[in-house]
## 1
Amino acid sequence: MDVLVGLGGSDESIKTLRQTIDRTQAVGDDLTVAILEKPEAKRSQDEMYEQADTLLTEADIDAELVRLEGDPGSALVDYTEQGEFDQLVIGGGTLSPMGKIQLGPITEFVLLNSPTTVKLVR
Amino acid sequence: MEPTRIYPDDRSGPFPSPPTTIDDREGRPIEIRAADDLTTELEDVVAMYDEFDPSDRAQGIPPTGEERIRDWLETIAEESVNVIARHDGAVIAHATLVPDVDEPAAIEERNEIEWELAIFVLQAYQRAGIGTQLLEHLLGHASDVGIERVWLTVERWNNPAIALYERVGFEATGSESFEQEMAIVLEGEDGSG
C-alpha cells in the first residue's frame, strides 16, 4: 500500500510518525513523509524534517521525505490528490487536561476534503 | 503565568455559592453541594457515570466501564474543583474544573492558572433546569476559592449546550474546528473586577 503521512511539528506528529514506521515495518508499505509548514508548532519545519529523517534512518526505512509549503491542510490534500496514495495518515488529536479529545482545524480540513482514506493515529 | 487562551474583556458574576437545595422542573428536590475532595465521594460519582448513556458522550468522555471511569476520575480528582447534585442520596449530576498545568500539586495561586470546565447530567434529569443551576453554583464556588479564568470546549453542533454557556457569560473564542472553545472570567472573591 502507498501511504502518505503528514506531520506538523508537535509531539503528536512524533507519535504519529513512530506508529506509522512500526506499521510500515510490519506490513511493508511504501511510505512518503510530508513535513508541513506550521509556524506555531513546537518544532520548526526544518527541525521536524531533521527529526523525521533521523527516525526513518534509525528504523532503516527507505521513505520519501518532502517539505510542503503553504497552508498545511490544503497543501497536504493537494499533494495527496496529485500522488497515487491509498491512505493518508495524520495525528488523531490531542487530549485536554480533562481528557477530552480535541481535533484541530487542519484535521477538520483534511477529513472533509481528502479524496483518499484518512487514518487518525491515537 | 500568562494565559494561553483568549478571554472576554468583561468579568461575569456574581454566581451563587453551594450548598443549596432546589426543586427541579419535575418537582424533585435536588441537593447541590461542593465536593472538593472528590476522592471521598468517588464511588457515588463512579456509579453515576456508570449509568450515563454512552450516546451522550462528548469528545471521548466520560469513558465507559467502571474501571475506566474510576481511572479517569482518579486522574482528575486530586486538584480539581467539583460540585455534585444528588436526588434521594444518589449523584445525578457532576460539574468539575480541572487545572491546565503539568504538575497540579505545584499550584500556588488558583487565579494564575486556567481551568477547564465540564458538566454532566444523568439522562433522566436533563431538561429540568439542573444543568443551569449546577453550572452557576460551580462558577460561584470557583470564585469563592479564587479561580478567575475558566474555559471549555463543546462540540460545535451542540446548540443547547452552547446556549447554556452563553447564558451564564461564556463567550466563543478560539479557532474553527469540530469543537467550539468558550471562555469566561469570574469576578474576584470581593466582587472586584
## 2
Amino acid sequence: MSELMPVILALTILIGGVAGAAILTWFERRLLGVWQDRYGPNRLGPFGIGQVAADMIKLLFKDDWVPPFADRLVFIFAPTAIVVAMMMGFAVVPFAPGMMIIDVNIGLLFFLGMTSLAVYSVLLGGLASNNKYALLGGLRSAAQMVSYEVFMGLSLIGVVMMSGSFSLVDIVEAQTDVWFCFSQILGLIVFIIAGIAESHRLPFDLPEAEHELTAGFHTEYGGMKFAMFMLGEYLGLMLISCMIVTLFFGGWHGPMLIGDWLPPFFWFSSKVFVVICFFVLLRAAIPRPRYDQLMSLGWKVMLPITLVNILVTGAVLLWMEGVA
Amino acid sequence: MLEIVFFYIAATVALVATVMAMTRANAIHALIYLIVSLLAVAVIFFLIGAPFAAALEIVIYAGAIMVLFVFVIMMLNLGEKGDKQERQWLQPSIWAGPAVLSAVLLIELVMVISQTNGPVSVTAVSAKEVGLALFGPYVLAVEIASMLLLAGLVGSFHLGRRYLERDNLEKQGGQ
C-alpha cells in the first residue's frame, strides 16, 4: 500500500487538479458576484454549477486553430509548460502526515523551481504568437515574474531559518505549537503579494491587462490551448494557496487553541479554501496598478522588507541560542 | 542500477539538447533546447548526490537567467531576418575547423577520464554542508563574486540613471 500511495496520490492530484480548476472558474465568478453585489453565472443547474460543463463543452469543441504567422512549434508547446510545471509543484505539497508524493529535503526549492519554470509558458506564448500585444504581454510578464521571484525566494528564508530545513514536512512539524504567520508576518505579506504576481492574477494581471493589451500573451489563443493557460493559472492559484498554508498557517495542524481533533487533511483543505477565498476577495477589491507602480513596489518596498525580515529573524534566532 | 540508467538517459538528453541548441537557426528554438539541457544537468546533479545544486540549477539557471535571455530576444524581436543571418553564419566552412580541433581535445579528455576511477559510492550533500563550505573555506570566492555582482548592479544603475536625468532635463527645458 505504501508503495502505491504516491501513484494513487499523483493520479488523484492530476484528476482533482483539473476538476478543481474547472469548479474554481465557476466558484470564483459566483464569489465575485457576492462581493460585487450581483449574481454571476446562476442559470445552469443548481446555483449555476452547470456553467462549468457548458464552458468545457464550448472550449473542447472550438476549432483548434494556429495562426499562420505564429511560430507553430513554440505556439503549441507554450500552454503545456505552465500546466506541467504547476502539476509538478504539487508533488512536494504535504497534504497530511504521510500523504504526499515525495518528501525530498529540497522540497521548498523544488516548488520555487517549478514556479520559475512556469514563466516560460507566458513568455513563449507571447513571443510565438507574433502579435505586438501578445509580445508586450510576454515582455511584461518576464520582467514582473523575474522580479517577484526574487522576493518570493527571499521571503521564505525566514521560515527556513526558523525550521532549519528546506523539507516541507519539517517546516510543518516545526509549526506544531506556534504557526509561522505570527513570527514571520513580514515574510507572509511579501509571499502573498509575490504569489499573486507569480500566478499573474488580478490585481497583478498586467501581462494580460485586457483594456490595454486586448488579452496580452494569450490574445491569439483559443479553444483547448486557451483552456490550458486558464488551467495553469488556476492550478497556480491552488498551489500558491497550498504553499501559504504549509509554510505559514501550520499545514495539516489544527488551529492552536482548538487542537488537532479533526482529520489533518480536513484542516489542510479548509485552510486552503479560506486562502483561495481571500485571493478572490483581493481580485474583487483591488484595482490593477500601473506597470511602473508594480515594479517600484517590488524593488523599493518589498525587497527592503524581506531583507529586514531576514536580518531580524537571524539576529533573534542567534540571540535566543545565546540565552538558552 | 536504476540510477545508472537514469544517469545515462539524462546525459543523453543533455548532449542531444546541447547539440540542438548550437545548431538551431531560430534563437528561441535554440534557447528552449538550452533550457532542456540545463534541466537534464539538474537531474544529473540530483542523481550524483547534490540535490541542492540541482535545485539551484533549476531556480537560477533555467528559471531566471534563461528567462532574461528570452527577454532580450523578445526586445530585439529579430524574426525571419535573424534566422537568415544565423543560417549564413552556420556554414560548414565556418565551423568545420574549430569542430575538428575540439574533437581532438574531446578524444584526449575521454582517454584521460577512462584511465581514472570514478567515485564508487554516492554521498548526498545537504544544503547545510554547501552553506558551510561556501562561508568557510570558499568565503573569499563568495566575496569576490558578490563584488562582481555589485559592480554590475552599479553599472546598470548608472546606465539607467543617465537616461532618466536626460529625460528630466528635457522636461525642465520644455517648461
